[in-house]
Specification:
This protein is α+β, with helices and mostly antiparallel strands. It folds into two domains: about 5-70 and about 195-215, Glutaredoxin (3-Layer(aba) Sandwich), CATH 3.40.30.10; about 75-95 and about 130-195, Glutathione S-transferase Yfyf (Class Pi), Chain A, domain 2 (Up-down Bundle). Helix content is about 60%, strand content about 10%. It starts with a strand and ends with a helix. The model has no long low-confidence stretch (mean pLDDT about 90). Pfam families: GST_C. GO terms for molecular function: transferase activity. Belongs to the GST superfamily.
Length: about 220
């Protein structure tokens, strides 16, 4: 039995394309436009949560992956996999939610003083979240200043897969409120330049286009 990735557009499931391409593993994709969370069916078992899916796929395919991929998953890589969601994404999401909720709330108001009140609340909440993200980014920069990857070695591993996407999403065009160090930016560019990255993103885009054509 194989692997089927249930893909959601613009979601954490982007990680799974890169991971599977890095390991040279075969997989099928089902695009789920109305889904709420990515999932994968691995040998008939449905696995949810990005970190759990990544770990399960590494256990399944890691032994036969190219030598450039870390296997088995090291404690260092496992730490960064957890950090990506438990620290980085945990604080990134409130910035997005705060912006969207405040915009929606202001659209329902006519009183200018109430709108200003919403803006003040947004600024306060947004500021706390951004500071938390920047603290996490400082820690990331310190790590990458003395380590090549999030495996702690020259190999790419689960921790790198998990860390790349929240870092890239928050970075955007580099003009946002987050403070990225040069080592972090260089690491992201290095990952994005890998042949497997281009292959993974092409597979993702092709699957999304095929899904839209079938609607």
């Amino acid at each position: 039995m194989g692997v089927t990735v249930h893909h959601l557009q613009a979601s954490r499931s982007d990680r799974l394309f890169l991971l599977l391409e890095e390991m040279g593993a075969p997989y099928e994709v089902k695009a789920v436009p109305l889904g709420k969370a990515p999932a994968a069916v691995i040998d008939g078992e449905t696995v949810i949560e990005s970190g759990a899916i990544v770990s399960a796929l590494v256990r399944k395919f890691g032994a036969n992956a190219p030598s450039s991929f870390e296997y088995p998953e090291s404690p260092t890589s496992a730490f960064w996999s957890t950090f990506s969601e438990g620290t980085l994404m945990l604080n990134l999401q409130p910035t997005v939610v705060t912006a969207r909720v405040s915009a929606g709330l202001k659209a329902t108001l006519t009183d200018e003083s109430e709108k200003r009140g919403v803006d003040k609340l947004k600024k306060a909440l947004f500021g706390v979240a951004v500071q938390n993200v920047n603290n996490a980014l400082t820690y990331v920069e310190q790590w990458l200043s003395s380590h090549e990857n999030f495996t702690g070695t020259d190999k790419i591993g689960a921790g790198d897969i998990m860390m790349y996407f929240p870092l890239a999403i928050a970075y955007g065009n580099g003009k946002g409120p987050y403070k990225y160090g040069p080592k972090t930016v260089a690491w992201m560019k290095k990952i994005a330049a890998r042949p497997t990255f281009a292959k993974a993103m092409k597979r993702r885009d092709d699957e999304e286009k095929a899904q839209k054509a079938n609607l």
